[in-house]
Amino acid sequence: MALRTKLCDVLGIEVPIVLAGMGGASNPRLAAAVSNAGGLGILGAAGCGPDQLRKWISEVRSRTDKPFGVDTLLPASVRRISGEPGSGPSPLDQLPRHEKFAEQFMEREGLVAAPVAGASVAAFSKDFFESQMEVVIEERVPVYAAGLGSPGPWMDRLHENGTAVMAVVGAVRHARRVSEDGVDVIVAQGHDAGGHNSPIGTMALVPQVVDAAGDIPVVAAGGIMDGRGVAAALMLGAVGVWLGTVFLATEEAGILPHQKQALVDSDEENTTVSRSVTGKPARLIRNKWAQAYTESGLDPLPMPFQGRISGPVLAAASAAGRADISPGFAGQGLGMIERIRPAAEILAEIAADAQRVLESAERLIPQER
Ligand SMILES: Cc1cc2nc3c(=O)[nH]c(=O)nc-3n(C[C@H](O)[C@H](O)[C@H](O)COP(=O)(O)O)c2cc1C
What we know:
The chain is built from 15 helices and eleven strands. With about 375 residues, it is α/β, with parallel strands linked by helices. The protein has a single domain (about 5-85, about 95-360), classed as TIM Barrel, CATH 3.20.20. It has an eight-stranded parallel sheet with strand order 1-9-8-6-5-4-3-2. It has a three-stranded antiparallel sheet with strand order 7-11-10, with no helix packed on it. Helix 8 links the parallel strand 5 (about 165-170) and strand 6 (about 185-190). Flavin mononucleotide binds near residues 20, 71, 73, 224 and 333.
């Protein structure tokens, strides 16, 4: 593979393409498929309790002997759950109003309660996030990625284990903060991205983060779907890409059949940014749940409380295969998805196309005679 950058040396991979940590979707099968194909597979472990996380790490190790990573969230808002001084009134007071709203929505849509997958949402506490970090450290994973917040307090222990540390940022000031904390790689994730979302577009964000990051390698994320996007990211100063949506549309991804179909059926106009799922702005495929919040004028609760409200609704909708309610998170590159394919095929195609695009760029400059 000719497409090689500094990122390959930092992460021990062959091609500078990283599977984005996508909660639940980036499962051991998908992560191993990407790592085996020469990229870096990352487990989307945000919702995994410590036992499940250990199982996932063991499964990915059984499927690949290549480097892989684990992505969790370290939201600053967890402080508010434990009622630390200065954390203000608890959003728990608002829960009943939102629960009523969710109940009425379920009734209107004819949804029947179903088990909520993954960790109990009530477990989304400071202790929960910290217990995930203990597993990451005990298991000595090759790469750790913080999808939100900074892994600063864990940095020394991660580095002692030889774990490379990545952090996802959506603004230059966040990039500065994680640089000071000593991360090895910064992921600049722009507004085009699926899931938690920056207000700044990828095209504008990446070079500004590159300038702020100094010697720390920057990986671009948000709306990158093919070799053209990879080539563009490299031209903006990134040394690799962190790809979510394009790897959702794979045989391996841990999402439901109706959600895979929604990816194929949607285009670039079908996403919106909403706080209705996690409490933080997240890009998702337009749906009735996000729409109901907008129409109600109710302000979704901050993370992680909103998850307690949306979890049961989305679980019920998913059990019923309702793409109109739970199509899932996705980025603005959606229109480039035509069908569901194996992850390895997508990765090989993207790498080869990126190389072709970069080689052909020379033709843009008239040669002197
Ligand atoms: C279904 C889905 C779930 C996601 N879950 C997480 C997550 O748990 N942790 C995280 O750091 N980012 C999460 N993200 C954001 C991705 O890591 C990544 O930044 C984004 O998908 C990149 O943009 P793209 O989808 O346009 O490729 C998620 C994105 C999607 C589409």
